[in-house]
Amino acid sequence: MDFGILQQYGPMLLRGFGNTVLCWALGTIFAMALGLLIALVQRYAARWVRWIIQAYIEIIRGTPFLVQLFVLYYGGPLIGLRLDAVPAGLLGLTIYGSPYFAEIFRSGFRAVPVGQIEAARAIGMAELTIVRRILLPLGLVSALPALVNFSIILTKETVILSIITVPELMYQVQRMSTETFRYLEANLVLALFFWALVETISRLGRRLERRITRHLLTERT
Amino acid sequence: MTFQTSLRAALLGLAAMAAAPAAMADQLADVKAAGKIVTATDMHYAPFDMLTNGTYEGMTKDLFDEVSKEIGAEPVYQDIPWTAELPGLEVKKFDIVIAPVTITPERLERYTFTLPIADATVALVKSANSDMKEPKDIAGKTVGVQQGTAQFRALEAFGKELGGVTIKEYGTTDEAYADLATGRLDAVAGSLPNLTYLVKNRPESFAMFEPANFGPPTYFAWVLRKGDDSASFATAINDALLKMTDDGRVKAIQEKWLGAYTELPREVPTN
Amino acid sequence: MFSIPVFLQAFEPLIWAARYTLLISGLGIALGLVIGTLICAARLSPYAALRGFAAVWVSFLRGVPLLVQLLVFYYTLPVIGIDVPAIVAAVVTVGICASAYISEIWRGAIAALPKGQAEAAAAIGMAPHHIWGRVILPQAVTMSLPALINELILLVKASSLVSVVGILEITRASQAQAATTFRPLEVYIAAACIYLAINLCLSALGRYLEHRTAI
């Protein structure tokens, strides 16, 4: 172990970690929003629209992020789509995450008892109100652990952004290890930073989980 | 199998692991006794290491096949990503890293290098329709290079000399070539043999500068662990390389893969 | 420009490499399902020590990137005398990493079940193993199917990381192919097609099970 190296590379690594957190946070928010939209459209849209969405889900979900990002960044200019590294990375994360989130939301909606929705319709509730008052709150409760789970998975996918030169943690760690041959320290840095990020996310997730289930419990009684 | 027998088997296994000889005193004797040399290389570094339709080939393989013959052991070739090669070497997962590694003073402090196997002098490649000609035309332009390499250092120094070059670092040269093709980069710096091979394969997209190279001459070599136990192994490899240089095998292999022959130093360069 | 011949030629070596992707992700998934179920059981158990162990397991394995886990398993453990073949290291690492995610998926589904069901089952005198086997688990499995399929698809793709221990799977083979042809785009798209084919099978399986088990 050589901690002198961490001192020398510390500021660079911290900046890298900052970029990782930023890309992850923005990418996850956008992907979740797009995923929710997809799940809702898929529930109500005409059959042919559902088919198109299903194809989108299968294709994006079925192919590796590495390939998608590579095609977007290095192949995009062939058809006139020229993005800088960071915007390309965020767009890539958004597209990549959206079908997974869509499936998680769909799964959450499935868990909402049909009887509740039928009851709401029977008392003449508008479809939009049903979505807002019944489908979303109940669906989100059961989808929350999976949402947190996938957000955590997305933290790890951000390391792939290094192939398009986004200066995130992996990019900086690689630079440190190729310059100093300190591979053990490099792995330690990666492990600690990611563990800290993931632990924070899952703690927040658990807190949120407790909070919204408590709310539901009080509403029920 | 009952729980007790499986427990006994597990304990025996652990005991066997603990009893395994900790360190080999002499790597050469060890390699000869095993009858095989376990190597690691990154099989995407044309023309040195390539996987063509699932078969490993390239200049490194031809050279090392001959070296193994001289030593009298079978080579075992493994494709290991570059980032894992040196760590794996250090924990003895492999006997030798045969990926071409540029000899640098920092690396010499930590590893044993064999004699040079190829010229690694840094060169520049540009897009085929670019109007730049000489290396110094990259002043003020954006140039890509592989992260943490000796070529990166050389480019950095050259950039300072020219009064400013924007350097973009990539994980592998493949991404840098791809970005040169998109037009985000004006040029890519890399070792002369790699770039020559690139231009030979994609002449419609890429072209060399005239002259292509700049900076001091550097060399590719193979890497062994540092220490007494690898000394005899290093000597055996170097003797084999010298013998192959003298009987013309090195020349034939270089001409086959690089299209030309460069005479290489007969001692390990120290700078 | 895009070269169709390069694209088509890329398939043969990539399909060959897909053997390893299938082997490692298949065995990894099987191992992950078994360990993940056990970890989830530990997490929900009445014993604090078991719960604590499961919580640390999940936190550590979800927190540390799979790539680092692989590097440690294969390249650091030999220092203390644990030296396993690359393929074993790959399957075990992928499996235990998957177990952390899978146990969280089970836990989420079980937590979302109305408590009243278990209470009702207990009230009519069902034994605990019957409550789990006939009431809780069937519903939890059904509910978590989409999330589980999501996870399995992710695993197939994450198995590309095992190239770091020297296993030539699809992604690694495509990188090698890209580096010799200098046409990464064509080769990567070919690789994407193969991943897509594998994952479409998984998601078709998921849909089939979903229809069969719909509540």
Automatic annotation (TrEMBL), chain A:
<dbReference type="GO" id="GO:0022857">
    <property type="term" value="F:transmembrane transporter activity"/>
</dbReference>
<keyword id="KW-1133">Transmembrane helix</keyword>
<keyword id="KW-0472">Membrane</keyword>
<feature type="domain" description="ABC transmembrane type-1">
    <location>
        <begin position="17"/>
        <end position="202"/>
    </location>
</feature>
<keyword id="KW-1003">Cell membrane</keyword>
<keyword id="KW-0813">Transport</keyword>
<dbReference type="GO" id="GO:0006865">
    <property type="term" value="P:amino acid transport"/>
</dbReference>
<keyword id="KW-0029">Amino-acid transport</keyword>
<keyword id="KW-0812">Transmembrane</keyword>
<comment type="similarity">
    <text>Belongs to the binding-protein-dependent transport system permease family. HisMQ subfamily.</text>
</comment>
<dbReference type="InterPro" id="IPR035906">
    <property type="entry name" value="MetI-like_sf"/>
</dbReference>
<dbReference type="InterPro" id="IPR043429">
    <property type="entry name" value="ArtM/GltK/GlnP/TcyL/YhdX-like"/>
</dbReference>
<dbReference type="GO" id="GO:0043190">
    <property type="term" value="C:ATP-binding cassette (ABC) transporter complex"/>
</dbReference>
<dbReference type="Pfam" id="PF00528">
    <property type="entry name" value="BPD_transp_1"/>
</dbReference>
<feature type="transmembrane region" description="Helical">
    <location>
        <begin position="51"/>
        <end position="74"/>
    </location>
</feature>
Automatic annotation (TrEMBL), chain B:
<feature type="domain" description="Ionotropic glutamate receptor C-terminal">
    <location>
        <begin position="37"/>
        <end position="260"/>
    </location>
</feature>
<dbReference type="Pfam" id="PF00497">
    <property type="entry name" value="SBP_bac_3"/>
</dbReference>
<keyword id="KW-0732">Signal</keyword>
<dbReference type="InterPro" id="IPR001320">
    <property type="entry name" value="Iontro_rcpt_C"/>
</dbReference>
<protein>
    <submittedName>
        <fullName>Amino acid ABC transporter substrate-binding protein, PAAT family</fullName>
    </submittedName>
</protein>
<feature type="signal peptide">
    <location>
        <begin position="1"/>
        <end position="25"/>
    </location>
</feature>
<feature type="domain" description="Solute-binding protein family 3/N-terminal">
    <location>
        <begin position="36"/>
        <end position="261"/>
    </location>
</feature>
<dbReference type="GO" id="GO:0016020">
    <property type="term" value="C:membrane"/>
</dbReference>
<dbReference type="InterPro" id="IPR001638">
    <property type="entry name" value="Solute-binding_3/MltF_N"/>
</dbReference>
<dbReference type="GO" id="GO:0015276">
    <property type="term" value="F:ligand-gated monoatomic ion channel activity"/>
</dbReference>
UniProtKB/TrEMBL annotation, chain C:
<keyword id="KW-0029">Amino-acid transport</keyword>
<feature type="transmembrane region" description="Helical">
    <location>
        <begin position="20"/>
        <end position="42"/>
    </location>
</feature>
<dbReference type="InterPro" id="IPR043429">
    <property type="entry name" value="ArtM/GltK/GlnP/TcyL/YhdX-like"/>
</dbReference>
<dbReference type="GO" id="GO:0043190">
    <property type="term" value="C:ATP-binding cassette (ABC) transporter complex"/>
</dbReference>
<feature type="domain" description="ABC transmembrane type-1">
    <location>
        <begin position="18"/>
        <end position="206"/>
    </location>
</feature>
<dbReference type="GO" id="GO:0022857">
    <property type="term" value="F:transmembrane transporter activity"/>
</dbReference>
<dbReference type="InterPro" id="IPR035906">
    <property type="entry name" value="MetI-like_sf"/>
</dbReference>
<keyword id="KW-1003">Cell membrane</keyword>
<feature type="transmembrane region" description="Helical">
    <location>
        <begin position="54"/>
        <end position="76"/>
    </location>
</feature>
<feature type="transmembrane region" description="Helical">
    <location>
        <begin position="188"/>
        <end position="209"/>
    </location>
</feature>
<protein>
    <submittedName>
        <fullName>Amino acid ABC transporter membrane protein 1, PAAT family</fullName>
    </submittedName>
</protein>
<feature type="transmembrane region" description="Helical">
    <location>
        <begin position="82"/>
        <end position="102"/>
    </location>
</feature>
<dbReference type="GO" id="GO:0006865">
    <property type="term" value="P:amino acid transport"/>
</dbReference>
<keyword id="KW-0472">Membrane</keyword>
<dbReference type="InterPro" id="IPR000515">
    <property type="entry name" value="MetI-like"/>
</dbReference>
